[in-house]
Write a structure and sequence with these properties.
Layout lengths: L9 E4 L5 E6 L5 H9 L3 H8 L6 H9 L8 E7 L2 E10 L5 E8 L8 H15 L4 E7 L3 H8 L6 E5 L2 E7 L4 H23 L3 E5 L8 H11 L5 E5 L7 E2 L2 E4 L11 E4 L3 H13 L4 E4 L6 H14 L2 E3 L5 E4 L4 E4 L7 E8 L2 H14 L3 E6 L8 H10 L5 E5 L6 H12 L4 E4 L14 H5 L2 H12 L2 E3 L2 H13 L8 E5 L2 H13 L9 H10 L10 E2 L6 H12 L6 E6 L18 E5 L6 E3 L5 E3 L2 H18 L14 H14 L4 E2 L2 H10 L7 E4 L2 H11 L3 E7 L5 H4 L2 E5 L2 H15 L3 E8 L5 E10 L3 E8 L4 H4 L2 E5 L4 H9 L3 H5 L10 H17 L3 E12 L2 E4 L3 E4 L14
Parallel strand pairs: 5-6, 9-10, 9-13, 10-12, 13-14, 14-15, 18-19, 18-20, 20-21, 21-22, 23-24, 23-25, 25-26, 26-28
Antiparallel strand pairs: 1-2, 2-3, 3-4, 4-5, 6-8, 7-8, 11-12, 16-17, 16-19, 27-28, 29-39, 30-33, 31-32, 31-33, 34-35, 34-37, 35-36, 37-38, 37-39
Helix pairs in contact: 1-3, 6-11, 8-9, 10-15, 11-12, 12-14, 15-19, 16-19, 17-18, 20-21, 22-24, 26-28
Length: 880
């Protein structure tokens, strides 16, 4: 598959939040490598080389700066243009093993340079087929031994004559990923401290005119109670006080280095101001300015990376942290202090959420309008919320993803301790790539986003109103332990509507237990109904209605209560809304607000449908939180090397990629144990007849003709052929139809009838490998019945994938059709997901139809498109 090399620099964070650049070393870096080694202290030199020979610097520089190859690579860590550390691996005597060595500048010890380099070098080596690192370290070299011990890989040690020989398998298992994620979280939070907990803030471009963005941001900070130092930067008001803050002419004139600069200057001036901030050692900036060109945006990010600045924006509303009373936004109203963390890309959505959360009494803990998201992203905000104790609910509005898999892993961890909610943005948008197969057509932005959120444990709503409704429920009530809802109403018709809404939302409305019904009958009027829904009638008092709620909530068959009250002149029941031991949502018919939260902490909705959907979202959070995600299973009989050789051979002949010929497509699938109907390849009429005879039974002929992708539509399929005459006639018909374009035919045994499904996958440029499942056959596009998950799948995710589409009801069986072999279908999806996860060159894979029967699963057609694609590590520590 070739040698994997790192061809460009990336940026990552040290333990204290400092940004460093990681990139491959080349001949141009020789002098810097020599300087690094010559500046090492005698102790460091001795520990590194087991001696004090400084003349070795030139030889080491020549070694590490030579071009990378199959068994050698070297990376350097740079801090503002200075080389502060190197890591390299060289071939060892054992196959698949390489010797690793590192050197870190003395002044940078204990800041995580070596660990960061080891992670990046290990990722690079894994991509090149290296399975283990080996290192020899003096026993007294405590810092280096700690680097290896803390790496998260199962290191083995052996002591010989004061030298510790360390062998580290380059695994990337769950333990290793957890260790790396914790290092990333700690470093990321440190880098965000200047953004949300600044000791001093400057607003650059603050105008003297009220109503401008800069003036509004400055006024909001000054008026919000921020206790830190605040400055304005405006050359036209220098020396004066501007909206309550002392003003200077330029960033360089500030009386102290501030932690945060809010930039509101015109687009043409943004890059220059960011460079001034970097020169003045300002660690964080928020660029509110919009309208930057692509070139200006690139220069802005490059400037921030050069100076180690964390950047929010550009084109954003700003940031806020109610714990420090920082409101660095130009919103009309400041957020009320509370428990919800909010991260949005749209400033308008951010304003709406701030206002709703403040009105509901939920309030905001921290807020970030991410804008164009050049740097700080939803991943950063998730780690920030995870690390501080105020946030108990996270709300996200994310239109794009820089690292979806890292986002999903981080979100899954955070969601285990707090609900995370989002709204699906861009659901109606077309696919970013022209669909060439059924699978590619099915992999819409909505499908992939839903897959990401489902696997991340995030509750996804379809619109902003549902997001606010769900937030009101989850912020005020404990999430229900199950989907069973008891509806209690003083208006029978409204109670029926509420019960219908619960069922429509995926909840259940079970009959109450006999004890609950008996007690309700004893306290309610004779004309009441004590099934579920419960109709208390309008004649009950507030006291009786509350007792009914408590009694219903105590029923063991109930997980949550939905109270529906219609205001009458007989009694005001809103004060009686108290669910007792179970979560309670209420509907107050005629309520002006779509949702509000009572002083008792009960969310009250204007409509039964809104309350039911909010309860359903809360239950979905419980279900995901309490369900272990599991791990992708170990699969037997995988011939990964065979698959890799087949893929590399095809791409060697077709560097731009293309559709695999049928024989190679089937061989690739068989290398991962995917079930195919028995087949043979035939280049002419005689071979087709011989193949049919060998296979036995009715067969199918499928033409392999240039330009033909969908065989049924192109007339390239001949079915139910019985005997030599049928096969001969079918072959001649195909030869006449396609002429010289016909390269041959696949002869395949006719599969027995079953449920036709689509099993497929695409390599998404953003999300990576995505597995698609749903109804199959020729009507796939019309049915539009499919769902998706990111690969590789766990067994639980494969089961979810099978269970979500409408075709699941058919697969489960009914009186006219026995249940399908779901374990075999799950195994096929697991193998398919592993194939595309292991081989990112598989751009599209289409098994349609795959026939599922009570006695097994078989794919009867396959299309696979390959494309050259670089190997990437989605969990590697790096900034966007």
């Amino acid at each position: 598959m070739g040698v994997r090399t790192s061809t460009r620099q990336v940026y990552a964070l040290l333990t204290d939040g400092t940004q460093v650049e990681i990139r491959p070393l080349s001949g141009a870096d020789r002098d810097a490598v020599c300087a690094l080694h010559r500046d090492l202290s005698d102790e460091s030199l001795y520990l590194r080389f087991f001696g004090l020979n400084r003349a070795m610097a030139d030889r080491i520089a020549d070694q590490v700066c030579r071009p990378a190859g199959p068994e050698h690579a070297a990376l350097g860590a740079w801090l503002r243009g200075e080389l502060i550390g190197i890591a390299e691996y060289e071939p060892s005597n054992a196959p698949g093993e390489a010797e690793v060595a590192m050197a870190v500048a003395d002044r940078m010890h204990h800041r995580g340079v070596g660990t960061l380099l080891l992670e990046h070098l290990g990722s690079l080596a894994r991509g090149n087929g290296i399975v283990a690192f080996r290192a020899d370290t003096l026993a007294e070299n405590g810092p280096m031994l700690r680097v290896f011990a803390d790496a998260g890989m199962p290191a083995k040690r052996r002591m010989t004559s004061g030298v510790v020989e360390i062998t580290m398998p380059l695994v990337s298992d769950e333990h290793y990923l957890d260790v790396v994620a914790e290092r990333e979280r700690s470093a990321d939070v440190a880098s965000l401290m200047p953004l949300f907990r600044p000791g001093a803030v400057a607003v650059v471009g603050a105008s003297r005119r009220a109503g401008t963005v800069g003036a509004s941001a400055l006024r909001n900070i000054a008026a919000g109670g921020y206790a830190g130092r605040l400055y304005a930067v405006n050359p036209h008001a220098a020396g004066a006080e501007l909206h309550g803050a002392p003003c200077v002419a330029a960033v360089s004139d500030l009386p102290e280095p501030v932690d945060l600069a809010v930039i509101t200057v015109p687009a043409d001036a943004v890059v220059a101001v960011a460079a001034e901030c970097g020169a003045f050692d300002i660690p964080a900036i928020v660029v509110v300015t919009s309208g930057l060109s692509t070139e200006q945006g690139g220069e802005l990010l490059a400037t921030c990376r050069k100076h180690g600045i964390r950047l929010v924006g550009p084109n954003c509303l700003g940031v806020a942290d109610t714990g420090t009373a920082l409101n660095a936004t130009f919103a009309a109203r400041r957020p009320a202090a509370g428990v919800a963390g909010v991260a949005v890309q749209s400033g308008g959505v951010g304003i709406a959420l701030i206002d709703h959360l403040s009105r509901l009494g939920i309030g905001v803990s921290s807020f970030a309008s991410l804008g164009d998201k050049y740097d700080v992203s939803a991943n950063d905000m998730l780690m920030w919320w995870e690390s501080e104790q105020t946030t108990r609910l996270g709300l996200l509005h994310v239109e794009s993803f820089g690292s979806p898999r890292k986002f999903a892993r981080t979100a899954r961890r955070v969601a285990s301790r707090m609900p995370l909610l989002t709204v699906l943005a861009g659901r109606s948008g077309p696919g970013a790539r022209a669909a060439e197969s059924h699978t590619a057509a099915a992999a819409t932005p909505e499908a992939t986003r839903r897959a990401l959120f489902e696997q991340a444990g995030i509750v996804a709503t379809d619109d902003l109103g549902e997001l606010v409704d769900a937030a009101a429920m989850l912020a005020s009530q404990a999430p229900p332990a199950g989907p069973r809802v008891a509806v209690v109403s003083n208006a029978g018709g409204a109670g029926v509507l509420a019960a219908d809404a619960c069922v429509d939302a995926g909840l259940t409305v079970p009959p109450l237990g006999a004890t609950a019904r008996r007690r309700l009958s004893a306290m309610l009027p004779a004309c009441s109904s004590v099934t579920d829904p419960v109709d208390t009638t309008a004649a009950v008092s507030a006291e009786i209605f509350q007792r009914a709620l408590h009694l219903v909530a105590a029923d063991p068959s109930v997980d949550a209560v939905l109270a529906v009250v219609a205001p009458t002149a007989l009694a005001d029941l809103t004060g009686a809304l108290d669910g007792g031991a179970k979560p309670l949502a209420a509907v107050v018919l005629g309520q002006a607000e779509t949702v509000q939260i009572t002083n008792q902490g009960v969310p009250c909705y204007a409509y039964p449908e809104s309350a039911a959907r909010a309860l359903a979202r809360a239950w979905s959070y419980t279900r995901r939180r309490d369900r272990a995600p599991g791990l992708p299973p170990e699969l037997s009989d995988l011939r990964a090397d065979e698959a890799a050789a087949l893929i590399s051979g095809f791409l060697a002949d077709a560097p731009e990629g293309g559709w695999l010929p049928p024989v190679q497509a089937f061989e690739l699938l068989e290398s991962y144990g995917l079930p195919l109907a028995p087949w043979r390849w035939a280049r002419n009429e005689q071979e087709a007849m011989a193949a049919a005879d060998e296979l036995g039974g009715p067969v199918v002929l499928k033409a392999d003709a240039e330009g033909v992708l969908h065989k049924t539509a192109a007339g390239a399929l001949q079915l139910d052929l019985r005997g030599p005459r049928d096969v001969r006639n079918a072959y001649r018909w195909l030869a006449d139809r396609f002429g010289r374009r016909l390269r041959g035919v696949v002869v395949q045994r006719m599969a027995a009838d079953g449920v036709e499904v689509l099993c497929g996958a695409v390599q998404d440029d953003v999300f990576g490998p995505v597995v698609i499942f749903g109804s199959g056959g020729v009507d796939i596009e019309a049915l539009a019945d499919r769902t998706a998950r990111l690969a590789p799948l766990t067994e639980r995710e494969a089961d979810d994938l099978v269970g979500e589409p409408r075709v699941a009801a058919v697969l489960a069986g009914h009186p006219a059709r026995p249940a399908a072999d779901l374990p075999a279908l799950r195994d096929a999806l697991l193998r398919l997901s592993r194939l595309v996860a292991d081989h990112p060159e598989i751009a599209e894979l289409d098994l349609n139809p795959t026939i599922v029967r009570p006695d097994g699963v078989v794919a009867v057609d396959a299309r696979i498109r390959l494309a050259p694609r670089g190997v990437w590590d989605p969990y590697l520590r790096r900034l966007r």
